[in-house]
Amino acid sequence: MEGTKLNWLLISFLAFASILPLLRADIAEYDEVWRRRAAEAYNRTVQAYHPDPLKVVMHFNKHVNKHVEESGGLDDVMMLNTTRRHLGKAYKGPCKVTNPIDACWRCNPKWHLNRFRLADCGMGFGSKATGGKGGRIYMVTDKSDDDVLNPKPGTLRHAVIQEEPLWITFRRNMVIKLKQELMVTSDKTIDGRGAIVQIAYGAGITIQFVKNVIIHNLKIHHIVEKDGGLIRDSASHTGLRTQSDGDGISIFGSQDIWIDHVSMTRCADGLIDIIQGSTGITISNSHFTDHDHAMLFGGNDKYPGDEKMQITVAFNHFGKRMVQRMPRCRYGFFHVVNNDYTHWKMYAIGGSSHPTIISQGNRYIADHPYAKQVTKRECPESEWKHWTWVTDGDLFLRGAYFIPSGDQDWPSKHPEKSDNIKPASAKLVSQMTKFAGRLGCKLKYAC
């Protein structure tokens, strides 16, 4: 059996490698460096895949419930459980943490003296992401992006191509207009705390065939398509790229990624695209508005390599004028937990190619008279009725409804079913997501 599995993996990799130049990789010239990166990335995906993803689900829920219990439960938050949003930016009181990720670091006024503490706070499938922890702190001092072949020291592009672990910070407020897609190398944290950092009006961020990246506290908006060309993608390599698609953040064949406290809106393509065997990812505490195709997890029904995709989507707010794909999934395992869905014009969660979707403790508020259904499957019912799409403890308002399918008894079949822990109550979602999006962190003050 083990030999058969290894043979299958080898065959899959050979097929994967042979078609990569034809896929949406944006690699115009598939040289030896890119071939090596692709092979290394595939091996990391196999290694990063969690054989029992329900353990990750249970672990997440356990820690959220522990935080709720230690915070006093429902007593001080029920008054916030309304259908109207009051985002944290309007909050003027003392620092208040509302979920366990933030409780790990946010209310310490000396957070800036130990930025690395953030790396210990991840949860879910992306919890192994430590970014540039232990590396040098690199301060971005120059907002320009004039030379994508030989980036100027002090720019964000110069920082992200370095081959050492780096924790990247910003000296002042800045709007960075990327001339071409920003190619991020492994072991990096982009930490926007302490400044208002916007990636806007140019290309987006690309995380391709790399590992261990944290993106934190940025505002990403009005991302546009950019022509291809030669771009430096590491300190030692320049590659030829095709036209970028206009994604805010594109994750391709990468592992151990954590996106936290970002605000995203109005990108030419997707806000966040995660494709081609990427796995070990968490998207948390973020705020999304004014967009059609929000999140794509798995880009091709003909690429079964995404079976190993495992993603946690937690404590996010999907807000005004959102349309669809929050997320839209293929093949993998997706834990969508304690998010606030207050707007969708078509559907909230969709998929094809038999993804497993565990929706727990979310609040779904239908705001459109003809779009009450949360879910959408892009295939005949004769196929999707066998997919495991579970709703567990979700709250449905204004006529919203979720059509479950497949095995609804999945918790009882878990080998450690005695540890079956329910998600935190959906009635707490408006509180847990109160500070979603970019935080107004100032040095020497709690965020």
From TrEMBL:
Swiss-Prot/TrEMBL catalytic activity: Eliminative cleavage of (1->4)-alpha-D-galacturonan to give oligosaccharides with 4-deoxy-alpha-D-galact-4-enuronosyl groups at their non-reducing ends
Gene3D superfamilies: Single-stranded right-handed beta-helix, Pectin lyase-like (2.160.20.10)
Entry note: cofactor: Binds 1 Ca(2+) ion. Required for its activity.
Keyword presence, Iron: no
Pfam family, one: Pec_lyase_N
Signal peptide range: 1-25
Pathway involvement of the protein, from the record: Glycan metabolism; pectin degradation; 2-dehydro-3-deoxy-D-gluconate from pectin: step 2/5
One term of GO molecular function: metal ion binding
Span of domain Pectate lyase: 173-370
UniProt enzyme class: lyase
GO biological process, one term: pectin catabolic process
EC number: 4.2.2.2
Keywords: Calcium, Glycoprotein, Lyase, Metal-binding, Signal
Cofactor: Ca(2+)
Family note: Belongs to the polysaccharide lyase 1 family.
Name the UniProt record assigns to this protein: Pectate lyase
